[in-house]
Amino acid sequence: MGLVCSGRCGQDAVGPEPAAHTPTARRTKDKVAAAAASAPHTPNDTADNPEQGVRGEGSGSSGRKHSTEDPAAMPSRTLLVGAEDPDSDQGVGALGLAVNGRNKMNHDLPLTAEDMTGEAVGQYLKAHPEFLESWLMEQVELETLERWMIRRTQRDKQKSLENGTNAAPVILVSSSLSFDSTTTTTNTTTTSATTTTTAASNRASLERVASKIIRKTSLSRWKFCVHADKRKMLQELTSSLYVRPNKPHVLWELTRCISSAVNADGCNLYLADLDTNTLMRYVESKDGEGNTSTWTCPVGSGSWLCGYVASSRQATRVTCPTTDPRFPKGCASAEEQDVHHLLVMAVVQSDGELAAVLELYRRRGGGEAFHTEDEEIVNSYLVWGGIALHYAELYHSMVKQRTLNEFILSVVKSIFQDMVSMDTLIMKVMNFAQKLVNADRASLFLVDSKNKQLYARIFDMGSEFTEDNPPQSQSFKEIRFAIGKGIAGIVAQNGEVLNIPDAYADPRFNRTVDQLTGYVTKSILCMPIFIRGNVIGVMQMVNKASGVFNKEDEESFQMFAIYCGLALHHAKLYDKIRRSEQKYKVALEMMSYHSSCAPLELDMLSREEVPGVLPGVDDYYFCAMNLEDMTKVRHAIYMFVDLFGLSRFDKDCLIRFTLTVKKNYRRVPYHNWTHGFSVANSMYAIIKHNPKSFRPLECLSLFIGSLCHDLDHRGKNNKFMLETESPLAAIYTTSTLEHHHFNQTVTILQQEGHNIFGKLTSTEYKQVLGNIKHCILATDLALFFPNKARLTQLVEDNLFDWDNYDHRMLIEAIAMTACDLCASAKPWEMQAETVKVIFEEFYEQGDAEKAAGKNPIPMMDRTKVNEQAESQVGFLSGICIPCYELLHRLIPNTEPLLDGCKNNLQTWKKIAEEKRKVMKSNSEVEGEEETDTGIEEVNEEEEEEEEGVEALQDIDDECVDGKSGT
User: Fold this and answer.
1) Range from 99-108, 198-207, 678-687 carrying the lowest mean pLDDT
2) Cβ atoms within 10 Å of 323's Cβ, excluding its own
3) Kind of pairing, strands 354-363 and 266-273?
4) What separation, in Å, do the N-terminal and C-terminal C-alpha atoms of the chain show?
5) What is the DSSP secondary-structure string of 496-554?
6) pLDDT for position 238
7) Is the pLDDT at 856 greater than 60, yes or no?
8) Least confident piece of the model among 97-106, 142-151, 871-880
9) Which residue of 175, 478, 842, 889 is surrounded by the most CB atoms within 10 Å?
10) pLDDT the model gives residue 933
11) Helix (H) and strand (E) counts for the chain?
């Protein structure tokens, strides 16, 4: 920086004093300055606006022209800018020119290209700062202004340092250019002093001015030229946040930016550990990998400077921090980094928690102490950095949650997909728990509620064990101890988490295991595992890899413990199911042995030839009551071979299947092997007399379905099964017995050597099985009524089509019901004998209902034998006759079934009438009085009719709940 020239010499306005500046010129300038001082002040006076510098002679507002004193000393050509012409109407600041000593206004003599020199423009801009400001704001880009300001501040700083080094007694000028996004102001203050002082005073003055320039430079860079700096800083933070979005790295980048902004020589970052209430120094390598050093200090006064700031959360500026009683230990890196001046500030998150402590320092001899302006800069950077820190924290939380979710998902998949045994599950749980909290060892204890103990077979699983390297099962030795003993026992008793940072300092810790094994336990995290509000286990993690277990570990494991509880609970259930499965296999093996056909029976029938003809078997009135069980088997095999042949069926397999079916009918009064054979014989007669009504696979399904339709019948109906909460009713909620009959059929087919459909194709096999299920379920009288209604409507509307699959399914269902009720169409002798066994089975169910405290319906009450005839009249007229009539309309050859049922109905009506007469005569004998009006007789007839209706209703209700009269 140098003197400011008046502009007459033709040299630079600002710079070192040139040789052309003669004493005459100086005297001229002094006179002009004196004249300006004596003139009245105006807003444009230099005295009132010293920062605008000297505008040159004639720049005042007095209206006087330049003095011509000593014209010989003036140059031959002088350009004056800013002279005022009193005759001009341009006002103050009009452009006046003096060329070869002549003064002219700009409108009289405009500047030519020859006259438009840099000096002339410079003088004009000095005289018209408002024009300069307006032109800069409108014409120059903001980035260009920033670059100019950076170069200017750097140049001033360099010059000040050079002057300070040379220690030359020169005149110093402090200048600053300040602008923001809306206004730009150029201020130039020139201070001249030409005094000769001692070298010591000059050096002190230079140091003060240099420090002032440095401070102004730092503050100016912050206030005015940091648009580019701030943008660069934010871009760097954004890039860092994207590449490494973690809080320590963001704080480190922020610390470095702040250190550069305040011209610090270096910086330190201390991260806060809220769990231990300590600060840990953070160091980041060149490759961006950060780590926390082993150096720590407690938060609080009386120790280190960073600890004091973390406690007080107040910005602290200090020089030589070694004698302050608030932090007697001073700065941790003072000697290592030659720290002399310090600025230490706390970084506080939006929730009020301490995040870190920033430590900025300047070395001895490297600069002056930190000032308030530096604090302002740091605070402003922390506002921006706080946003980055906030989003880094959010990102960290989301990443942490996503990682935890992925971890738990892998746990769930591993646990529930590979549930082999309890020991395997425990190993998986312990392994996952170890990884979750980064523990060195883990133990899982299960609760034995019966004995009030904790037990474990896999204990203290260390890092040397993995899923690929599990401990050997031979080494498993169960250990047990009482609930309430030791840390795990206390957690099991109280159900509360125990987080022990120092195990040896806790009196509850048992050191015996460490003494025996030589292992040193430092920290322990022990947590309960709940299921349905009860503690079923305790997980104990030992020695976190870095530090101690914190709140974050507790929260992570609490979520993990939920799935652990579910897994352990299901593992126990799985073990029970597996044991039950083994028991079931044993029971099935026993049942298969006892329910399968006897080998002797199989050998005997295998040696026999299937007869070519059995007379009378295809008769609708064929009687099977007098046949032996083995004879019925032979007849069943004959009927099958007669209908389907043996080209696609194996004879031995057919014999074995039929014998096993016989054996799986229970010895109950009615629903036994004789009934099964009779229904199959009735279906055989229908198929035999109407070979084209059903398709081959449908005939096969109808015959096998009829033969097996009551397998393992217990002599009780569906209603009884539901009311007594039978296991079958729990398995099948609708058509309970019918579903069981079909499943028994499938079970027999699945036994070795029993699959009579083994030579069918896959498609045929599926079709036959599906049709057999349809046929067996159709024997439930609860389904008969809707099937009858639908089919009747189709017939009455003349819409029934044999080629329609649904229509054929309906007629198959009606045919199954007709065959199931075939006893009602047999000759009277067979009908009467069958009804006896039917009612015997009903009475047994009634007895069971009475034993259970229930009142059976009259049809099942053995004390009401006289009502059998009435119930049969209602059953035949309400169910059997409508069924056979509908079947006869579609398959006319089934007329014998309808005729036989009608004949039996007439017989039952006669018996019912006789029963009523007997009851009436008995009533007369007992002395019942009669009136001449006959009113009592009419009432008796009405009562008899009502009793018949009630009986029919009872039968209908019973039929809805299950087969009653078959």
Assistant:
1) 99-108
2) 9
3) antiparallel
4) 126
5) --EEES-GGG-TT---HHHHHH------EEEEEEEETTEEEEEEEEEEESSS---HHHH
6) 64
7) yes
8) 97-106
9) 842
10) 43
11) 30, 19
DSSP for 568-600, written as a single string: HHHHHHHHHHHHHHHHHHHHHHHHHHHHSPPHH
* From 219-233, 337-351, 567-581, the region with the lowest mean pLDDT: 219-233
Please tell me the predicted confidence (pLDDT) of residue 4.
37
Distance CA 477, CA 481 (A): 13
- Cα 683 to Cα 128, 636, 793, 833, 965, distances in angstroms: 123, 11, 24, 21, 18
Taking the C-alpha atoms of residue 35 and residue 113, their distance in angstroms, rounded to an integer, is 33
Give the residue ranges of DSSP H helices in 852-880: 868-875
Which residues, at least 6 apart from 490, have a Cβ–Cβ distance to it below 8 Å? Answer: 484, 498, 508
- Select which of 249, 341, 671, 807 is catalytic: 671
Two tokens at 417?
């997909």
Q: Which of 242, 240, 243 is nearest to 255 (CA)?
A: 240
H helix or E strand, kind and range, residue 433: helix 422-437
Q: What is the pLDDT of residues 915-941, one digit of tens each?
A: 888 888 877 776 555 444 443 444 444
**Six-digit token pair at 83?**
């002279």
Q: Return d(Cα 530, Cα 496) in angstroms, integer.
A: 11
β-partners of residue 98 are 103
CA–CA separation, 462 and 477 (whole Å): 16
Query: CA Rg, the chain, in Å?
Result: 56
With left for phi above 0 and alpha for psi between -120 and 50, is residue 320 left, alpha or beta? left
Q: Is the pLDDT of residue 97 over 80?
A: no
The separation between CA 809 and the C-alpha centre of its own chain, rounded to angstroms, equals 48
Taken in order 866, 870, 873, 874, is the CA torsion positive or negative? Answer: negative
Q: What is the pLDDT of residue 448?
A: 87
Q: Please name the helix (run of DSSP H) or strand (run of DSSP E) that holds residue 456, with its range, or none.
A: strand 453-456
- Which class for 333: exposed (0-12), middle (13-18), buried (19 or more C-beta within 10 A)? middle
**What is the Cα–Cα distance from 89 to 94, expressed in whole angstroms?**
9
Give the phi and the psi of residue 511 in degrees, each rounded to 5.
-85, 0
Return the structure tokens found at 922.
């008995």
Nearest by Cα to 290 from 391, 392, 380: 392
Q: Identify the CA nearest to 822 among candidates 680, 958, 948.
A: 680
What integer pLDDT is reported at residue 847 of this predicted model?
Answer: 93
For residue 411, the model assigns a pLDDT of 66
Question: Does residue 82 sit in helix, strand or coil?
Answer: coil
Name the burial class of residue 201, with classes exposed (0-12), middle (13-18) and buried (19+) by CB atoms within 10 angstroms of its CB: exposed
DSSP-based three-state secondary structure for 330: strand
Q: How far apart are CA 762 and CA 748, in angstroms?
A: 18
Is 341 a residue of the active site?
no
Task: Tell me whether strands 96-99 and 534-544 are parallel, antiparallel or unpaired.
Answer: unpaired
Selection from 159, 196, 191, 155 nearest residue 173 by Cα: 191
Distance CA(122)–CA(136), nearest Å, equals: 14
User: Which amino acid, one-letter code, is at 884?
Assistant: Y
Nearest-angstrom CA–CA distance, 154 and 142: 18
Using DSSP's 3-state secondary structure scheme, residue 615 falls into coil
Task: List, in order, residues 6 or more apart from 634 with CB less than 8 Å away.
Answer: 605, 608, 611
Residue with tokens 């646990």: 415
**What are the distances in angstroms from CA 667 to CA 663, 672, 673, 681, 712?**
9, 6, 8, 20, 9
Q: Please write the tens of the pLDDT for every residue from 809-841.
A: 999 999 999 999 999 999 999 999 999 999 999
**Residue 101: per-residue pLDDT:** 39
- Chain-wide mean pLDDT for the chain? 75
Is 115's pLDDT higher than 70?
no
The pLDDT score that the predictor gives to residue 773 is 96
For residue 483, give the DSSP letter: T
Distance CA 635, CA 631 (A): 6
Residue type (1 letter), 905: L
Q: Model pTM greater than 0.90?
A: no
